[in-house]
Amino acid sequence: MAQPNQVTVDIEDDEPAEATPRHNALHRLDSVSRPAPPNRNNLGLGDRLNSVFREIRPLVEHARMGNNARLSLPTWLPRNTPTTHQIVEVGLQRPQSSIAHVNLGPSAQTYVVTERGTPPTQRPQPPSHGVSNSATNDPNFQSEDGTQQVVDVRATLNLLIRYAPFYFLLFIKFMYDSREGIFTFIILFCTFTHSNSLVRREHGKQMNRSILALLSELVFTSSCIVVVHFLFGHGKLLPNVVMFPGYTELDVWELLWLVVLTDLIVKIITVDIKILVTMMPAFILPFQKRGKVYLFTEAVSQLYRSLLTIQPWVFYLLLSYEGSEKMVGMFLTSVYVIAKFIEVLVRLRLFKNATWTLLQSVNLGTKPTCEQLLSAGDSCPICHDDYTTPVRLGCSHIFCELCISAWLDREHTCPLCRAKVADEPTWRDGSTTYDFQLY
């Protein structure tokens, strides 16, 4: 008795294994051949396959509808019957696998149509032109780095805020324990600042300078130095100014206190010398030559201040260690001497240039002729008054000798055309440096 043909369609969705390659394949599995019944339908095998595939096509497409993928079975299966163990690979990737089992009857062969693919989360994206796939250009990585930095900053701020009362207590204790030294520093620094600005202002006035203001400032600064030495300096400041100190054991804070206050006192004495220069009458020291004297005074002061700190530092470094640790003190002293030698060379260069400038008799220009005075006008461009001792510069502009000398103490170019006339006017206006000599 002939057994009727059967078509069994099973559709399964399996997750692809990691070891399975990401491509589609058509596998044909041979079933055990059975003897054909004597009375079979006269249809060929190809016609039967086409009929079966047309029937199962809607079912397979419906099973893959959730992945938004379209699959045409006629494009997969050729018209001709595939041979045994034939594998046809199709380069389509799907997020899931679909398996269709086709049973054509007891005497037919079984075909298994397998669709393999990668899951949606693992589907590789095609590279686009002009877009970098590196992690450094990925905005997600950049946002994560920015978030991590914000977290680190917040943690640091929280730590600082947590210990803020402790810092405040230490600061209050330090201010109270150092109240005498801080008060002395404020007095000397304010005195130096006021006297330094007064010298610059009065030097700019030249003939109209106030002798009374300069004399009052001189008395005030001298009194301030004496009061600070006896009341707050404990007799240590003035001996250190003249390089004859009487040292006792001191720590680093006492060393810095001694060095800073001594440096301020020397700078105030420098300002006092400049006050005396400013108070001199014009017939003793002409105004056009006072800039050189100011420069020389400042160069001597800076050189002396650089040498003044050698004794305290060497004493501190050598006497900080005893016994076998003396070698450490000698090594630190050697390093200090080398660093100090380089600084002293810089101060010596400034002193040499200032001395050379002081000894030179440099004329600012030449005496203009009557025709040149007529073409330049009747008044000086700086003071807007009649010419007194007119001088013609190399740029052909004419000024009063006194006016252009005062101008070149602050600038080094012509007031009208900005042509370079003299060297840099550093320290020629009567000012004193604010830098502290700490070592």
TrEMBL record:
The keyword Lyase is assigned to this record: no
A GO term, aspect molecular function: zinc ion binding
Gene Ontology cellular-component terms listed: membrane
Keywords, in A-Z order: Membrane, Metal-binding, Transmembrane, Transmembrane helix, Ubl conjugation pathway, Zinc, Zinc-finger
Domain RING-type intervals: 380-418
Localization per Swiss-Prot or TrEMBL: Membrane
Matches recorded under Gene3D superfamilies: Zinc/RING finger domain, C3HC4 (zinc finger)
Membrane topology: Multi-pass membrane protein
Transmembrane segments: 159-176, 182-199, 211-235, 255-283
GO BP annotations, alphabetical order: positive regulation of ERAD pathway
Annotated region (Disordered), positions in chain: 1-22, 115-145
InterPro entries reported for this sequence: RNFT1/2 (IPR044235), Znf_RING (IPR001841), Znf_RING/FYVE/PHD (IPR013083), Znf_RING_CS (IPR017907)
Primary localisation category: membrane
Record's compositionally biased regions (Polar residues): 130-145
Official protein name in the record: RING-type domain-containing protein
Organism: Arctia plantaginis (Wood tiger moth)
